[in-house]
Amino acid sequence: MGFLARERQVAPPGWNRWLVPPAALAIHLSIGQAYAWSVFKTPLEKSLGITGTQSALPFQLGIVMLGLSAAVLGTTVERRGPRWAMLMSTIAFCSGLLISALGVWAGQYWVVVLGYGLVGGIGLGIGYISPVSTLIKWFPDRPGMATGIAIMGFGGGALIASPWSTSMLTAFGSTTTGIGQAFLVHGIAYAVFMSLGVLLIRLPSKEFTAEKEALLKDRPKATVAFNVSANNAIKTPQFWLLWVVLCFNVTAGIGILEKAAPMLVDFFKESSTPVAATAATGFVALLSAANMAGRFVWSSTSDIVGRKNIYRLYLGVGALLYLVLLTVGSTSTPLFVIAAMVILSFYGAGFATVPAYLRDLFGTYQVGAIHGRLLTAWSVAGVLGPLIVNAIADAGKKAGHTGPDLYATSFYIMISLLVVGFVANELIRPVNPKFHESAAGTAQPSPERDEDAVAKWNEAEAADAAESAEKQDAEGAVKK
User: Fold this and answer.
1) Which cellular components does GO assign to this protein (predicted)?
2) Which of 70, 88, 232, 370 is geometrically suited to a Cys-Cys bond with 435, CB 3.0 to 4.6 A?
3) Strand, coil or helix: what is 141?
4) What is the pTM of this model?
């Protein structure tokens, strides 16, 4: 089809690259509706007579399919271009919402699981990776900021969808009829909004190469002198260490996010200041705001402090904050909310920073396909996080536990996972030059190119060491 042909997606000379982020946001703000799933959990449980674990299934399957479709179709997205990918995402995601509406109306929960989780999840995966890889190509000088812009939209999707869904359930009712109508409106509205991104997205032109070099002229650290193919990337320890980092960081955040509203109510149910269900919905919106802001703020900060350092913050401080929730979280609602918001800011930032981390390690050659394969970590975490929190909470209720006791074991597990992720991040080193692509783009490494790459890594490390030494000398002088 002419409209979807890759050559028709290339920007004309003089195209403003700042028109690309709005196209990415049109997709990510829409598919980010998945983060507002917790608003539908309680109404579905009451109207269909299902458990908390069962009501998490559409969300869990959606995240599984996000990772799997991104991994399987990553190279196809790179080959066919972002416009094709965004259109396929629009069709699949919105169809999933419409199928879910039919399932609720029919009282068949398995149809909701298949519609929202399976079909909609495929739309999530395709739509997630395409704008990200395109933005990295347009913003080689600020990859962290660029990916933060797009993925900020995914995190902020619930900021729109949560109050919108709540208002629709209030207006239509929390019965099967009302829930189905809410899904129907979502499906139609998002189809229109996502189509704007399909029309606006563009790929960089050949003329952008000269501009690219000018952009990188004053930012030598942003330059990547080598590329690694997707097939070679999965053979490196760096890929799998980063897989562990992403998986455990996501598991720790998604467990709170998926059960945010009922968790806040349970935590303070027996306190002197219980939280109403309507206020808990506001808590979901606050978490979404933190999730969205963290994706841009922390990811942009990674362009300054480096990817490894910023992940030390996500994982190390995240573990400490979980410990705060575990020990004193139930003593103060504001303390609980603030700690949870910071954890969710790290959760979202981990997603936003990882494409730039991949670009630093593997180059831009097939970064979209590599990113897609890495998102299988999200698939695992999407099952693991909600399963840990929901299963332990359900078991606790059967055993007669209440309040914070329902989540204590879950929080201990999350702390452990974050510590393991911290260690994995510390073990990441530059990729062995034997995995680099040759200048011709073949899978075999070029000896000359390898030597250049090693030299550049050595120069970069020497520069960093010199910079650290200067800072230490300056600090010593001040102390004296």
Assistant:
1) plasma membrane
2) 232
3) coil
4) 0.74
